[in-house]
Amino acid sequence: MKLADIKQIGVVGSGTMGFGIAINFAIAGYPTVMSDISDEILEQSMKNIKSALALFIEYEIITQKQADDAVTRITPTTDVNDVASNSDFITEAIFDRSKDKREMFNLLDESSPPHTIIASNTSSLVLSDFGSDVKRQDKIVLTHYFAPPHIVPGVEVGMGPGTSDETFDIVYDLMKKIKRVPIRLYTEESGYLINRLQNVVFKEAARLWAQGMASAEDIELGIISTFGFRMPHEGPFKHYDLAGIWKWPEDIRFPPPDPTNEVDKKIREHLKERKTWFVDPEKFDEAVEKRDREYIRRYKDLYLSKED
Ligand SMILES: NC(=O)c1ccc[n+]([C@@H]2O[C@H](COP(=O)([O-])OP(=O)(O)OC[C@H]3O[C@@H](n4cnc5c(N)ncnc54)[C@H](O)[C@@H]3O)[C@@H](O)[C@H]2O)c1
Question: Residue 308 domain-assigned?
């Protein structure tokens, strides 16, 4: 199977995530069958789709004609077999309940053509659990979008225990084709990568708020105006490079080593050996200037009003 063999898309569940996932495929030109459990829910989802597309038109991302074409490509249905029988690629986006996902994956496995790839948008469950009865282990995969999925570009693409490289590569390329930014995950774990990172910040913020260190308003403000401000430009590794932390003396850079902690050891060895992650130390000043220019543009846009 190749990317070009994917011609018809299915989306199961048209809630917060499902309708936006359907939009991505429909704008990219794919006929998309979208199922849910009632006509009322589907009517609301079609309204949500039209409102979302109207905003895209307003911001000149698509034309009225492209929006109209996208809507005609989406077929709502209450019969999940309409999705299963014809789709080459299906995204499951129903409630995050293991039992429901297991039933749905088994149904899709039994009713879809043998070549069909079945993806889940789960945030916290793992394919090795709810997908364990599926016969086509090589053709199940994770595509984890972030709300709203038709706007936020990143999608985690992850493997279950039996996912083939072929499936993974097709899905990775499919995400690019629908103008998403695929993020490769090599192992599976509840919460996957991005939510685990995000949750560290949330949990610590909630703890410090509960301890009374700062108000919820100031914690929000602090994040948005500091590391949140930087984040469109850099993640933690590039930040480490650009902040020049790699140049600090080793005893300041690292806390005392814990020889029993293997993960800790691996991180230290890597940092010692590589020094920087992305920035060439020879071109450090250049990279800092580039960063500063981008920061200034954003600072001007967000914080210096015309009256100032
Ligand atoms: N909401 C988020 O921010 C977010 C982000 C990333 C991933 N996810 C994941 O996406 C999935 C869906 O989440 P959501 O927020 O869209 O939930 P939601 O409750 O808004 O939508 C789920 C939809 O699935 C439908 N549904 C339930 N059983 C069904 C069935 N058997 N057949 C067809 N439709 C069925 C429901 O009627 C509902 O409309 C979950 O796995 C969740 O973990 C959610």
Answer: no
**For residue 36, which of 84, 94, 89 has the smallest C-alpha distance?**
94
139 lies in which domain range? 3-185
pLDDT 10s digits, 238-296: 999 999 988 888 777 766 667 788 888 888 777 777 688 999 999 999 999 999 999 99
- For residue 13, the CA-to-ligand 1 centroid distance in Å is 6
What mean pLDDT, rounded, does the chain reach? Answer: 95
191: in domain: no
Q: What is the pLDDT of residue 308?
A: 57
Rounded to two decimals, the pTM is 0.94
Number of domains in the chain: 2
Q: Is residue 202 part of a domain?
A: no
Percent of the chain past pLDDT 90, that is, above it, reads 88
Ligand 1: centre distance to CA 104 (Å) = 12
Band (pLDDT 50/70/90 cuts) for residue 307 is low
What is the residue with the minimal CA distance to atom 25 of ligand 1? 13
Here the CATH number for the domain that contains residue 67 is 3.40.50.720
Probe target for ligand 1 pocket from 48, 122, 123, with the most ligand atoms within 8 Å of CB: 123
Q: Are residues 143 and 251 in the same domain?
A: no
For a mutational test of ligand 1's pocket, the pick from 11, 24, 36, i.e. the residue with the most ligand atoms closer than 8 A to its C-beta, is 36
- Residue pair 116/90 in contact by the 8 Å Cβ criterion: yes
Q: Looking at ligand 1, which residue's alpha carbon is closest to its atom 2?
A: 147
Residue 75 neighbours by CB under 8 Å, 6+ apart: 31, 32, 33, 34, 82
The residues pairing with 77 across neighbouring beta strands, listed in sequence order, are: 35
Please report, for residues 223, 231, 239, the alpha-carbon distance to residue 219 in angstroms, rounded to integers and kept in the order given. Answer: 6, 16, 21
